[in-house]
Design a protein that fits this description.
With 290 residues, this protein is α+β, with helices and mostly antiparallel strands. The protein is built from nine helices and 15 strands. It folds into two domains: 140 residues, 2-Layer Sandwich (Fructose-1,6-Bisphosphatase, Chain A, domain 1), CATH 3.30.540.10; 134 residues, D-Maltodextrin-Binding Protein, domain 2. The strands form three sheets. Strands 4-3-5-6-7-8-9-10 form an eight-stranded mixed beta sheet. The chain has a five-stranded mixed beta sheet with strand order 12-11-13-15-14, sandwiched between helices. A two-stranded antiparallel ribbon has the order 1-2. α5 runs parallel beside α6. It is globular and about 60 Å long. The structure holds D-MYO-inositol-1-phosphate and calcium ion (2 copies).
Length: 290
């Protein structure tokens, strides 16, 4: 199959941007006014703003590009004849933050072509930051080029992660990894918006991100942004990234091997109740270069 031209990608990017800004305007107007919050399952919230935001995004995408399939968090799959393409949209990434008035949420619009992330637009309505990228065209924040951090030592890094909504139903819930990486680094943040987490790694404000249990709408746009900013995205074990696995390791590139090894050798949670066992943990993972 032929790759899309730079001109085509620019058109897709401009459409994604229009949709992200229009939806972002709704998020900004409704900020602090949410009254009714539904729970899809314990901890997984949805507000009327999620739905309004999604409605306007779908309308704009359909107006410019009828027949392009869409995968939207609240509506599911909307089929179309242009089967090489799939818009992956999260109308409000960080609903829990948004519902509580904690300022970290975004609109995320990504385009997959032959299952590969090609275009991404992420908009944070509270900080008024627009992140954009397309394969081969670079990555920007508010139209200025962005670049990942140069951090090359895990001990000097600041990371971010998240916990999926099934965290109470599985022991593969990222709690052990969170403790271990907190131990090895300057800190691990729990941002609450996967798209923004990836955007902040792309900007060099954070050095790496990992998470499990993610959906294509959470990360498609952010992956393009990070790769275009010089970062690297793989599975935890550095094998090629698989969008369906829900598991992502995304870093500034320099830390990739160290972070991968740490995730693969994470000790069980019991270690943190034993001071002796905690000593010298992870010396190798922290320091050995790739
Ligand atoms: C969630 C956020 C969060 C991540 C969860 C996602 P939502 O999306 O991205 O950071 O940890 O796994 O489901 O529900 O706010 O759109
Ligand atoms: Ca999400
Ligand atoms: Ca969402």
């Amino acid at each position: 199959m032929q790759s899309p031209s730079a001109d085509q990608l620019q058109i897709f990017l401009d459409i994604a941007t229009e949709a992200a800004l229009s939806a972002g305007a709704i998020l900004r107007d409704r900020w602090g006014t949410i009254e009714s919050v539904e729970e899809k399952r314990p901890g997984d919230l949805v507000t009327e703003v999620d739905k309004q935001s999604e409605e306007i995004i779908i309308k704009i995408l359909n107006r410019h590009l009828p027949d392009y399939p869409i995968l939207a968090e609240e509506s599911g799959i909307i089929s179309g004849t242009r089967e090489r393409y799939l818009w992956a949209i999260d109308p409000l990434d960080g609903t829990t933050n948004y519902a509580h008035g904690y300022p970290a949420s975004s609109v995320s619009i990504g385009l997959l072509i032959d299952n590969i992330p090609y275009v991404g637009a992420i908009y944070d309505p509270v900080s008024d930051r627009l992140y954009r990228a397309a394969k081969g065209l670079g990555a920007t924040c508010n139209r200025r080029p962005i670049q990942v951090s140069p951090t090359a030592d895990l001990r000097h890094s600041l990371l971010v992660t998240g916990f999926a909504y099934d965290r109470r139903e599985t022991t593969d819930n990222n709690y052990a990894e969170f403790c271990y990486l907190t131990h090895l680094t300057q800190g691990v943040r729990r941002g609450g918006s996967a798209a923004l987490d990836l955007a902040l790694v792309a900007c060099g404000n954070l050095d790496g991100y990992w998470e499990r249990g993610l959906k294509p709408w959470d990360i498609t746009a952010g992956i393009v942004l990070l790769e275009e900013a010089g970062g690297r995205v793989t599975a935890y074990d550095e094998s090629p990234f698989d969008l369906q696995s829900g598991r992502i390791l995304a870093t500034n590139s320099n830390l990739h091997g160290m972070l991968s090894r740490s995730l693969l050798t994470t000790p069980p949670l019991q270690v943190w109740s034993d001071l002796e066992a905690m000593k010298n943990l992870g010396e190798k993972e922290k320091t050995s270069p790739d």
